[in-house]
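1st attempt posting a full record on here, be nice pls
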Amino acid sequence: MKPMVGAAMLFLTCTSVAQPRAAKQEQLRAGEHHADVNGVSFSYSVIGSGPLLVIQAPGWGIGSSYLRGGLSPLAQHLTLLFYDTRGSGQSGRPADAKQMSTSDMVDDLEQLRQYWGLDSMALIGHSHGGAIALSYAARYPKRVRRLVLVDSSIQNYSNNEEVKREIDARRDDKRFAEAIAEMSNNASPPQTDAEFAASLGRVLPLYFSDPVANIPRFQKTWSGMPSLWAMHAYGAADDSKNMGAMSLVKARTLILVGRDDFICPLPIAQRIHAGVRKSRLVVIEKSGHFPWIENPEQFFSQVTRFLEK
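the predicted structure (as tokens):
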């Protein structure tokens, strides 16, 4: 999710998900950790038990807390590894603010993979985290065994026209009036992290199919403060480096998209599906950008069934 400004669980064995190497068990034990790689101190957490699933957060400043809160039902049968991208959450900033591109974050994931001692991994990415995961799977195809992309964006791909159409379709709906006005407010942009968080809160209704029912649920899963510095640095970074053709992705891939997602709408998911050969596209009904919040039964059912095959 790049800003423009539970559930019923199936029993799974997940035999296809990579197990960590014994030599790195200390790095992958449950709890809070830090890893110094690529000149940045990364904060990551491990919860649950069972086969390992790496959760890729977006890189524009929101951090991984909303994923830790929202995807925690998966920890019933999996070990979940969440980490904050450079400049976000509890992770450090790079010495050079220009090193905040998606490509830099792909490099981070590769260095972290080596630090964790994984030959390959199951990987799930949401929003811009999906763009990082997809780019990683194209650049390092042998390192990803299973790939799940949830309402994903694509590195170096502009979807401004698609987003505009989605916003225009909501202009007569009073539930989205304040959010659309906030997105159009260029007179007083946020100057602090607190102001950035408040602005995101006002825009938030656009990210849901039913904001009245589901924003309170989402807010219970989101803690911490977004980084305005990361948002500006990511927005200014050169993201033109070729991610590699999507056809290079070798992992079996599940693409999930909310029917009513305005920021990473269905055409983007269809584009990924056309490019990744071993992919399956599933549209989550009555859902926007956060399908595990709005339609958790369908979301978790799809993810667990995919991983257990």
